[in-house]
Amino acid sequence: MAEPLTVVITGAAGQIAYSLLYSIAKGDVFGKDQPVILHLLDITPMMGVLEGVIMELQDCSISLVRNVIATADPLVAFKNVDAAFMVGAMPRKDGMERKDLLKANVKIFFEQGQAMDKVAKKTVKVLVVGNPANTNACILSKYAPSIPKENFTCLTRLDQNRAQAQIAAKLNVTADKVTNVIIWGNHSSTQFPDVAHAKVDLNGKVVPVREAINDDSYLKNDFVASVQQRGAAVIKARKLSSAMSAAKAAADHMHDWFFGTKGDNWVSMGVISDGSYGIQEGLMYSYPVRIADKKWTIVQGLSIDDFARGKLDATAAELKEELEAAIAECT
Ligand code: NAX
User: Fold this and answer.
1) Tag placement on the chain: N or C end, fewer CB within 10 Å?
2) What is the mean pLDDT of residues 142-148?
3) Is 274 marked as binding a ligand?
């Protein structure tokens, strides 16, 4: 069996981590033959709760988990980690916009970036889930300058999964039949779920989603709005933000980063912009990426019509504003 991977989960006593830990422990993320050492970070007042989570993890009786370290100290949590799920942050409450969260959460990533810089492996693969995820990932990377910028990403896979599921429901197929939906930009209500290049397998025949649905007005309006507002709809119904689906998406994201994408298919990830598609360099922007040998590459050359151009630019403008506000908070 392989040497264990060391994996940190922050916000480990919270609701997303509760589902995510089980996925990681049973091999959904790093493979069924890959042992893991889990570092669980939360704040001091949550150490008692974390103890209970660890008891349950133990009671799952899963042999891939070789050791579990619970701590409130980022220097212990990030020590020699190979992969980091950065979930720990305050979640959005009913009626709260993501901008309200920025002030509270960005400082966490400012401090944790500095700790990561000191003690994590330089090859660590980092996925930021805590909101505002894109901007938090930028701040984390900025304060961990010894780790390559390409190693920092943020979660927009939940939005991709939501979009895929909605298209699949509309066409009465299972979600795995829908591929190459794109989430552009920010994990917020300005994100652009784009099906212009998406495909669907209808009984063995692969056709463009636009052709199969044949209703551009739906795809430009109701579909986009329902994906953008899905997080808020879950909060309204559950009185808590998405957790099971967020954990599944985080697991999908890290799994694909380790194992790669298949054939011509791509997935959406928030990654550092290199200026592709006219987006300002340095923003953490969700793009379609292909992954091979544990490295992501932004898919190039996709046509962008005027409608899409407006959407891509609007979400970039929000990210620019968020990043400026975040940097001001950290100085
Ligand atoms: P919970 O409140 O259940 O858990 C958060 C945990 O983080 C708590 O245990 C808390 O004590 C801990 N925490 C707070 N400050 C910390 C620090 N400095 N170091 C370590 N841990 C700390 O929230 P949960 O529902 O698990 O959501 C976590 C984050 O994910 C929120 O910011 C939420 O907004 C975000 N989400 C992001 C999504 C995405 O697609 N990018 C979707 C789901 C979710 O909304």
Assistant:
1) C
2) 98
3) no
| CA-nearest residue, atom 4 of ligand 1 | 14
| ipTM, 2 dp | 0.99
Which amino acid, one-letter code, is at 155? Answer: L
The response to whether 131 counts as a known ligand-binding position is: yes
3-state DSSP call for residue 268?
A: strand
Q: Which of 112, 81, 94, 110 is nearest to 241 (CA)?
A: 94
Helix (H, G, I), strand (E, B), or coil: what is residue 147? coil
* Ligand 1 interacting residues, C-beta cut-off 6 A: 10-11, 13-17, 41-43, 46, 87-92, 108, 129-131, 133, 155, 158, 187, 241-243, 246
Distance from the first to the final alpha carbon of the chain: 46
User: Phi/psi zone of residue 80: left (φ > 0), alpha (ψ -120 to 50 degrees), beta?
Assistant: left
What is the phi/psi pair of residue 244, to 5°? -60, -45
